[in-house]
User: Fold these one by one.
Assistant:
Number 1:
Amino acid sequence: MATPSPPPPAPLPERMKAVQVTAFNHPYEITTVPVPIVGPHDLLVKVAVASYCHTDGMVASGAFHTSLPVTASHEGAGTVVAAGTSVSPEAFRPGDRVMCGLPLHPCAACPDCVGSDGNYQQYCVNVAGHVGVHVDGCLAEFVRVDARFSTKLPPNIGFRAAAPLACAGRSAWRGVVQTGLTTGEWLLVVGAGGGLGHLAVQFARPRGLRVVAVDARDGALELARECGADVVVDARQGGDEDKEKCKEWVVAEVRRVTGGEGAHAALVLSDAEGATATAAAATRMHGTLVQVAQPEEVRLPFRELVFRDIRVRGSLLCSPGESRDMVRFIAERGGAGKGEGKGEGEGGIRVETVVFEGLESIGELVRFVRSGRLRGKAVVVVDPEQLEEEKKLGAE
């Protein structure tokens, strides 16, 4: 008896709802736009969850000179519904759960694209744009992303965790890797209780690093501690209003807990004024400082560079290979959950989220983020049916 053929896929709609920046420094608008058309290297992803990032505020303010209107959010996860003609079925096929990539259409010819180790592909300057920054993003029912920068999800990484991992996770992961530290060495994380910071702490600890977490908010300090930081330093202890005293306090405390010399490397995830200078001063001579945060200007006293030989590196996202490494690392440690009870030492990576339901909740989300009460990342559940479906896989 012949096996019945599977039913044909449901036809895609022609239009969809999207949250867009239509004017700089104005509230988002919920609009109806055409469903994207995929090119040869593209995936069309039915968005399950989209995440809000500090960079989204920069896009909305005009910092990247984005052509408007543009659909918001560069952090998303969902299910593939269509793949371009150049995407091999072994890489992605409809039905696959994915973490969306950010760069769209690299040139595949520049030194960063074709370099021997492949770890600089995200730096291609000839891309068509970055999803949610220059081209339409994930706060919509569907998003077009580049298959070459997207990452397939294992069953034990849920959509609510995967969306923040698309940028915050990739940025924190590569930042830790770029420090070059080995087992037993001290890593200073400035901004350790934020959306990137609490992930960086959890990526560093299983690698055998000892972590000094610095932050200046009660909830953030608590989160860094919960995520396994060896030492937590409150940057306000030197005096809330005197920035120089605060810096001196942090530097003295970091040196005290690291045997007098300071951390072997620092990872700067805070764009607060003075964060980079404080991190450099708290790093031992000849140490490495990795800058991920994006203030308008990164200020560093020449004494740190010249007299103490602090080596400064910038770090941007992950290469495709590094993204797969991150996902594998998380999966091997029990997966990733949305924040309740997951943490280093308990099995799994904890991705702390505050969940908002539906695209219509974007105004409420922005107000909550601006209130200063956010712990971790704010995410929007775009398609609750996908979250119900993935429970069958054991994902959270």
Number 2:
Amino acid sequence: MPRWVDTAAGEYAKRLPRELKLQWRDVPLAARSANSNAQQLREREAESLLKGVSPNDHCVALDGRGKPWTTEELAAQLESWMMQGQDLSLFIGGPDGLSEDCLAAAKQRWSLGPLTLPHPLVRVILAEQLYRAWTITIGHPYHRA
């Protein structure tokens, strides 16, 4: 990731409490060529992605066809996830999206909205929104909407 992504996402990550530590795991893109098939690329990337997920993780796929949550709804989701006591894995798709295997492994699908966002920006948005949601759960004044 570019330095600005690590700086911005890192700023929000360091504000979170120890029990909400963010860890990013980058999965290399499958090799692409002029004859690449998007479905096959998604499947190859899914193999790497799913290998890094524990069977006990609560998986959420970021998917444009998923449910868009308000910040307050995300805060309620965060509280629910924390009460489950499981690690949370958020799947961010590559340029071709997520495979059906990743979508099937996810217990939830979350849409960040109808816009197509670049992968680095999604990381920053996730870090900020998770921080914002956490501040709502503890009554911190960061979120003033």
